[in-house]
Amino acid sequence: MDNRRVFITDVTGRDGFQMEKHWIKTEDKIRIINRIINSGVKRIEATSFVSPKAIPQLRDAKEVIELIKRDNVEVVTLIPNIKGAELAMEADVDEVNVVVSISETHNKKNINKTVDQSVKDIAEINKFVVSNNKRVNVSLATTFGCPFEGIYEVRKVSEIIKKLMSMGLKRFTLADTTGMANPTQVSDFVIHLKTVFPDVQFSLHLHNTRGMGLVNLYSGYNAGIRHFDASLGGIGGCPFAPGATGNVCLEDVVHMLHYMNIPLDPDIDELIKAAKQMETLLGYKLPGQVMRAGISTATFES
Ligand code: COA
Ligand code: ZN
């Protein structure tokens, strides 16, 4: 395989929709997610099995998983605890993405547990999910800094990874929950963690809160990351982190990588159409840029 190839996980259905104030009808969620799948995205985090009190927008998780077009795509759901894992297994998802924060304060606000309690839960979740022949990914929220606690040394991140690896976990997402990372920090963290944990599959989950999303992604790519999360139109954010805004925008990421001649699956034209449809549906201007400007090689009549 071409070692430049990039693999995208679309997180519109989860990170994107969880932040929307107005209820999005289940059929509209399905319409958008299916369009993203039809554009060639091979992996989607479609929803979360979380408390409906914590994230009311995703209370239709079961229906969403039942109704999306599931051939030719890996379906992931975010979960915070064992109950989420049970619901995800009932829904027959391919993988669960269990979240724990590097930050004690954010973990408490997000999932009402200490980091140690979450780590213990993840061990139990892993056993249960693996016994169902499914995979577990761990998302490390606030890896690059927390709006309550500030920026961490990479050692704090590697300590948690080490503990979780001793429990059998092998796949980790380094999440920049509120867009605090900068390109130097991303490459320093990635190079360090890939050196210490050569057998781990790392992915990057970046937010564009301070306009550094794409440059952080490029920095992560140059440091050897090939798996990235992104959301259509650049929507999303964590409701339990002050100032959170959208993910790196799916079609902007695909556009950049496509013009860098990096192999990847999604079709940029289809994604732009999908983003425009979602903008109409959500009823406000989305942060995505390529959906407005068009692809860079488009020419206009003079
Ligand atoms: N899925 C659905 N419902 C769940 C659930 C899950 N994974 N986990 C708990 N619940 C329900 C319980 O059954 C209970 O329902 P009830 O009030 O009708 O009896 C209620 O939620 C509270 O359960 P409890 O175990 O006391 O949890 P809590 O109030 O301490 O909240 C979490 C903890 C983890 C459930 C909640 O904080 C959560 O769902 N967080 C998700 C945060 C998130 O998605 N953030 C964005 C992504 S990073
Ligand atoms: Zn996020």
Please give a structural write-up.
The chain has about 300 residues and is an alpha/beta fold. It has twelve helices and eight strands. The protein has a single domain (about 5-295), classed as Aldolase class I (TIM Barrel), CATH 3.20.20. The strands form two sheets. It has a six-stranded parallel sheet. It has a two-stranded parallel sheet with strand order 1-8. Helix 4 packs parallel to helix 6 and helix 8 (about 185-195) runs parallel beside helix 9 (about 215-220). The chain is globular and about 60 Å long. The chain binds coenzyme A and zinc ion. Zinc ion binds near residues 236, 238 and 247.
Keywords:
302 residues, alpha/beta, TIM Barrel, 8 strands, 41% helix, globular, binds coenzyme A, binds zinc ion
Number of strands: 8
- Which structural class should the secondary elements be placed in? alpha/beta
| Small molecules in complex | coenzyme A, zinc ion
What is the CATH topology assignment? Answer: TIM Barrel
Radius of gyration: 18 Å
Binned strand content: 15-25%
What are the secondary-structure elements, in order, as H or E? EHHEHEHEHHEHEHEHEHHH
CATH hierarchy class name: Alpha Beta
